[in-house]
Amino acid sequence: MNHQDELPLAEVSEIDEAKRQWLQGMRHPVDTVTEPEPAEILAEFIRQHSAAGQLVARAVFLSPPYSVAEEELSVLLESIKQNGDHADIACLTGSQDDYYYSTQAMSENYAAMSLQVVEQDICRAIAHAVRFECQTYPRPYKVAMLMQAPYYFQEAQIEAAIAAMDIAPEYADIRQVESSTAVLYLFSERFMTYGKAYGLCEWFEVEQFQNP
Asked: This protein's superkingdom (predicted)?
């Protein structure tokens, strides 16, 4: 399944047992020509998680049951970065850790959204979604979408975040707009005027059904 558009965010703990054994095997090398290289193991581990809609935090490799040494992990990740066979492995730096994903199964935008969810930065997640929507399509962002994948935010969380964003300078461009049926949308003044945002949300919620 491809995650270029929308996928549920799975739990990182759901790991293929074979990959678990491979990662553990990095600490106890076995003399066999059939075993994959450690860098290949890490890359495949990341790809598997991306296919399931998951980012892989760097800390995962440092923690049990894998417990890869810091120095060894740095070498392996640099090896992946330099190897053309692993050009699909990308890294995002968050406020808490570095996160890895495969562009074969996950888009850059989905990965960025997932990072904000993992780090529980709801205000930044909302701002990212709204700005991306307004710049890319362009259209205002329906607030109800924040209760769906990959966010699954609760209504109270969304209301609190929007209230906090209203007084935060870094989110001064994020504005609210409602359709005539009181459906709430958000838009960014960096990419869209209030009039355009209102016209679009009115079309989505009312006019398109009056003029099929």
From this structure: Bacteria
